[in-house]
Design brief:
By secondary structure, the protein is α+β, with helices and mostly antiparallel strands. The protein has helices at 31-44, 51-64, 82-98, 105-117, 127-141, 162-165, 170-179; strands at 2-4, 15-18, 25-28, 70-72, 77-78, 121-124, 153-155.
């Protein structure tokens, strides 16, 4: 069952929903407002609105809005925090100070492939943070990372955005972990453990 990853993020054109029982279409910019409209409609038409209905509503909403950021309800979500931003900035500073270039495109693609199959891969719970991270990469480090390689995906072991982390040399990433006093529990197949 799917749920919206970031309810405050509005897909292009707003959230659209067609009630599967009545066929009545709804359109709204905010999920809570849409939920209220649909709920009132269903109550007025003697249709079910119990606790299980809300979960079914979110799943159907994701199904009807395929471009919207949604994830499996059972999947873990990493919510970006100040430590994550500190880690990101420390990585950029360490990268610049070391003079080491980003990894080759071939190595980058290999790493992303490993991450996308990893059990520690999850969804980022901050839609604006990913865009912020990419802006910082471009402005400060000059690293070119594809926006669609692993959209909204992060490593739940360390909290890093996958499309960003895969571009940095392992030595730089390990140095940042050491300086921040972190020992992420990477999955056994993680490229960080090679």
């Amino acid at each position: 069952m799917k749920i919206p990853t970031s309810p405050g993020l509005v897909p292009s054109g707003g959230w659209g929903y067609k009630d599967p029982d009545s066929g009545v279409p709804f359109k709204e910019n905010h999920i809570d407002a849409l939920l209220g409209l649909v709920r009132r409609h269903r109550i007025a038409n003697n249709l079910t609105v119990g606790g299980e209905w809300t979960a079914a509503f979110y799943s159907e909403l994701c199904s009807q809005n395929p471009a919207a950021p949604c994830h499996d309800a059972e999947a873990q979500v990493h919510y970006v925090n100040g430590d994550d931003l500190s880690s990101f900035l420390a990585t950029i500073v360490a990268q610049r100070e070391s003079g080491i270039q980003q990894v080759s495109q071939e190595e980058y693609d290999r790493r992303v492939g490993i991450c996308m199959r990893c059990p520690s891969m999850g969804s980022v719970g901050c839609s604006g943070c990913g865009a912020f991270a990419r802006m910082l990469e471009r402005a400060v480090a000059g690293i070119r990372v594809s926006n669609d390689v692993a959209p909204g995906r992060s490593c739940l072991a360390c909290g890093c955005n996958i499309s960003s982390k895969c571009a940095y040399p392992v030595e730089t990433l390990k140095k940042v972990d050491t300086e921040l006093g972190r020992t992420p529990a990477y999955a056994t197949e993680c490229w960080m453990l090679e």
